[in-house]
Specification:
Elements lengths: L3 E2 H4 L3 H4 L10 E4 L5 E10 L5 E7 L8 E5 L3 E4 L4 E4 L5 H6 L11 H12 L26 H4 L136
Parallel strand pairs: 2-7
Antiparallel strand pairs: 1-3, 2-3, 3-4, 4-5, 6-7
């Protein structure tokens, strides 16, 4: 089961878990004594979000070595900003613990080393029937070492139970742009117009009276007599004019669709076990 640092799993853990406080920096004392052994450097949770370890920076106690303290072996005093490491009672015990390194994952083998040290203390908090021969990497469960990882109201008052909820929101983002413009295209057009031109046709004909003698008085000889006739012709007037061909309206329409999503939600539940004739009044507030 992979372990993660507290802020990696709960980015807003100060508000979500500790009501605006932060356990990082709490002083750590050995057992129930006033011997300070270091400070809380971080916490590790499993892939369900449950607390499994506190990372203790031992400072000058063991020259800055960081060690893991199972969450069930810690008692919190939030008023005094203290953690009492009920499962960590001596410097010799801390020296047996493997050093914690931010850059190295805490795998099953490393956890087994840590659990072995706390099991061998023989304290009430570490009492367990688990032996390495009774499980292996694939069958191990934290329930096997319940005293090391179990939290309770007296020692962990501010630990909260969480559940995941599916939140559906929507965000408006620009996905594109449509530009509607005009361009001018040219083409060659031809038009034909029939036109008329007038012309004067002069015909000379021999009259029927040709050769007949007319009297002197009947013949009227005049010079300068002119017959006038106006002549017209049509000319083509071909030109271009602009006309409205069509009109374009640009508008937007909203198309509504429903997007469905599916996620697996987790929820923490209390495990309450009693021993003997203890009576528990479990009330929902």
């Amino acid at each position: 089961m992979a372990l993660q640092r507290l802020a990696e799993f709960y980015p807003n853990y100060q508000e979500e878990i500790f009501a605006g406080d932060d356990i990082k920096g709490f002083d750590v004392y050995a057992g129930d004594s006033d011997e300070k052994v270091g400070t809380v450097y971080d916490a590790l949770v499993d892939d369900t979000g449950r607390f499994r370890y506190l990372v203790i920076d031992t400072g000058i106690w063991i020259f800055g070595k960081k060690v893991l303290l199972p969450i069930g072996s810690a008692r919190f005093d939030y008023g005094a900003r203290r953690v009492y490491a009920t499962g960590l009672r001596s410097k010799a015990q801390a020296e047996q613990l493997p050093a914690y390194n931010d850059l190295e994952p805490v795998d099953y083998d490393r956890e087994e080393q840590v659990r072995g040290v706390y099991r061998n203390q023989g304290t009430a908090a570490a009492t367990t029937t688990a032996t390495p021969s009774s499980y292996d990497r694939s069958s191990y469960s934290y329930d096997i070492d319940r005293p090391l990882y179990e939290t309770n109201e007296q020692q962990h008052q501010n630990l909260k139970l969480y559940e995941e909820r599916l939140i559906a929101n929507k965000h408006r983002a620009k996905t594109g742009e449509v530009a509607v413009g005009k361009r001018v295209e040219t083409e060659t057009a031809r038009a034909s117009v029939p036109i008329e031109k007038e012309r004067v046709v002069i015909e000379r004909v021999t009259p029927v009276e040709a050769g007949q003698v007319v009297s002197v008085g009947e013949a009227d000889f005049q010079s300068g007599e002119v017959a006038r006739m106006e002549v017209y012709e049509e000319t083509a007037d071909i030109h271009k004019e602009a006309f409205v061909r069509e009109e374009v309206n640009v508008r937007k329409e909203v198309v509504r669709t429903t997007v469905e999503g599916e996620e697996t939600l987790r929820r923490e539940e209390l495990d309450i076990k009693t021993d003997g004739t203890a009576v528990v009044d479990n009330k929902d507030i």
